[in-house]
Design brief:
alpha/beta, TIM Barrel, eight-stranded parallel β-barrel, two-stranded antiparallel ribbon, 8 helices, about 20% strand, globular, Diverse_substr_monoxygenases, Luciferase-like_dom, LLM class F420-dependent oxidoreductase, Luciferase-like_sf
């Protein structure tokens, strides 16, 4: 099992190039960044569970710009999103950004995705929260077409474009990991993704769901777990997790736990 780090990378946190170098030197496999384009004032600082929303949610860097700095400063470190809110991006633009980052980083990018939970934030991007999961699927399917076809087209309910040319083509096409713990997340993984990115605290439930997902798939579906702790790494390995992400503090010089 690989061990990586995830963080809400705000402007107060260490530069991503320096953080990435520290992680690579400490033996970490990856660095993955969260995304919120903004938090609407009308939504307030209220979290998904109704509690207070942490300050770092409204202060993050753009993950793709920050990951470019991280990739340029390292040699082996895998870079990725945990997660990118695909429902807040134009798929043609996002496909080009990711293809460029994948190729310029030497094929080190992992695409963790989510549909978003902050309804006012989604609406500010013109996204209807009621149809966001269908929109996420169509945008991923459209992006795969852009990444693989010389003349790409896509015709869905919410995403529609006639044949277009777009380069570069990512080498390789980055793995897509669907984030979340909901009852239908496995269906989404099987339909249009390469793996799953859960963050459920019940590791017994995680073990059962990972086994059931792989049995349904008939293949070794990749699982990246978000929210690992050094003391739970052995349990996560036993649960069948392929990559465990330890969430670092959003402080000026985040402590990096030992994983040796």
């Amino acid at each position: 099992m690989d061990v990586g780090a995830a963080i809400f990378l705000t402007g107060d946190v260490q530069h991503p190039a320096q953080l990435a170098q520290r992680l690579e030197a400490a033996g970490y496999e990856s660095l993955m960044l969260t995304e919120h384009t903004h938090i609407p004032v009308s939504a307030g600082m209220v979290a998904r569970d109704g509690g207070p929303l942490a300050e770092h949610y409204r202060r993050t860097h753009d993950p793709f710009v920050a990951l470019a700095f991280a990739a340029a400063a390292t040699e082996r470190l895998v870079i990725g999103t945990s997660v990118c809110l695909v429902t807040e991006h134009d798929p043609i633009v996002l496909a080009k950004v990711i293809a460029s980052l994948q190729n310029l980083s030497g094929g080190r990018f992992v695409f963790g995705i989510g549909a978003g939970w902050n309804k006012p934030e989604l609406r500010n991007h013109g996204t209807d929260p009621a149809t966001r999961h269908g929109l996420m699927r169509e945008r991923i399917e459209a992006m795969r077409a852009l990444w693989t076809a010389e003349e790409a087209e896509y015709h869905g309910k919410q995403v529609d474009f006639d044949p277009i040319w777009q380069w570069p083509k990512p080498q390789p096409v980055p793995p897509v990991l669907v984030g979340g713990n909901g009852p239908r997340v496995e269906d989404r993984v099987l339909r249009y993704a390469d793996g799953w990115m859960p963050n459920m605290p019940d590791l017994g439930e995680l073990r059962e769901r990972v086994a059931a997902l792989r049995e349904r798939a008939g293949r070794q579906v990749h699982v990246t777990y978000y929210g690992a702790k050094p003391e739970t790494l052995a349990q996560l390995r036993e649960a069948g997790v392929d990559r465990a992400l330890i969430v670092l503090e959003s402080v000026p010089e985040p402590p990096i736990p030992s994983i040796q």
